[in-house]
Amino acid sequence: MKKILDCIAEAIKPAFTACGYEESFARVTLSNRPDLCEYQCNGAMAAAKTYKKKPIDIANDVVEKLEGNPVFAQVSAVMPGFINIRLSEDYVADYMNTMVREPKFGLEESKNKGTIIVDYGGANVAKPLHVGHLRSAIIGESIKRLGRFLGYNMVGDVHLGDWGLQMGLIIEELRDRQPELVYFDENYSGEYPDQPPFTIGELEDIYPAASAKSKVDEAFKARAQEATFRLQNGCEAYRAIWRHIMNVSLADLKKNYANLGVTFDLWKGESDAQPYIPGLMEDLEKRGLAYESQGALVVDIARDTDSKELPPCIIRKSDGAALYATSDLGTIIERERDFSPSRYIYITDKRQELHFIQVFRVAKKAGYVKEDTPMIHLMFGTMNGKDGKPFKTREGGVMRLENLVEEINDAVYDRIMENRTVSSEEARKTAQIIGLAALKYGDLSNQASKDYIFDIDRFTSFEGNTGPYILYTIVRIKSILSKYEENKDAFSDGAGILGAISAEEKNVMLQLAKYNEVMESSFAETAPHKICQFIYELSDVFNKFYNSTSILKEEDKARQASYVKLITLVKGVLETCIGVLGFEAPERM
Ligand code: ARG
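^ thats the input. predicted complex w/ arginine below
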């Protein structure tokens, strides 16, 4: 269905043309003086130049033509030439009834549905999944869900870091711990075992130990580098260890992501890009796009329009090794082959800004990706602790994701138990649902690029701009609806949503009317925080309406049925929005 602003513009266009003004001046925005009006049109100001008239005269002309128009409760011209608008109660109610009837509450699916790759998560295999990867997973999941809801073919790829030095470190640490394993026997020529030589628990111990050792032991580090090189160049024994590492960690990673409500369509990684790399290097060299510089193979990416100097993209180091950028380019070649995406969205922290500028520019320069295909790097800021420094555990280490989730769930559990209206078993289950909402909303409600402070107390609060507050609102509506249902026989069904009889009720409707616009712009701008802002405001106007209106005691049955339909719509819109953000509401809380 049409956006409310466009509907209003349609309604005032004839007034502009009837006065001899171009209809393009009939643009409408939300009012920036909500105390004076709901919407405004500034077209008279713009038209003044064209028609060499005073803006206020134009505004008065237009307003006069709108007199008696049933769309409006009030239209007035105010100095220097604003047209202030209030919609009629019936018109707004009609808009609500259309939302109720339409699929997806009137949100139209995008017409050119292409495939969009969302590259998010980005966990590094065999390294613990820590809070640094949390934001990517949370933001990416919401973008993927939103795009899907809008009708795009969204393909989410976790793009694992599964090909780096951590693999060589693990191989060498394993050699030190279990030198008798066949993988380390140079003369071994049989099949390698199916069973991994370590459990996930052991693997979790091996990597940090190896990483620490490499920082103090130069020889060990050199061995790890050598092992990484051999793995990447086809050593069968190391390949077998690598497969074990992958199998064991993937099971664990999948569990971790599932707990966050994050799922991927593709579980690919840097290793999958390797087959494309030799061809890629050859192609870039042959076409003269890449050249040797101090032994390395590089591609220039600087442009005259750049405000700062950008270094060339290194495709191959002087020792012959491929780099992070090379594997991202290989991945792009594969993605083009498999999906020819109409858009790419990568979600990482902003420290990778230069990396993606380089990769995108090489991809376009070489023609691997069409010039007009958007390649978006959604960069996010750091999650800080209350001290303003990157979030750490109480002991000062990097917090592991599982522990973080546990900490949030415990905090929510304590809050639920304070009021103690449910059994502790139910409280545990509910705490998990609310905890996830607290965590995700706490992240998503900030503009992604900004750093934010991870504050458990604030995030888990049932009041204010928090996930639990939104859930609380939904639960409250559910409870009103179920009480209404219990006594329904006595009530009439009514005609639909009626024109509002209070300012609070109308505010709920006006807020709901923003829904389709918010969803679309949130996706276009890859900005899930806009949805958070919208549902926060919606919850707020709903709760004000609830506090000022006795829905269940209303004696006019048609009016009561209208209230019920309206709050059902609020619930539907809130649930849709949190579903897109990646969490859900419990039955009670
Ligand atoms: N594994 C990387 C990291 O931990 C993130 C991967 C992001 N995606 C990509 N295509 N480079 O920093």
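The two ends are 35 Å apart (CA to CA).
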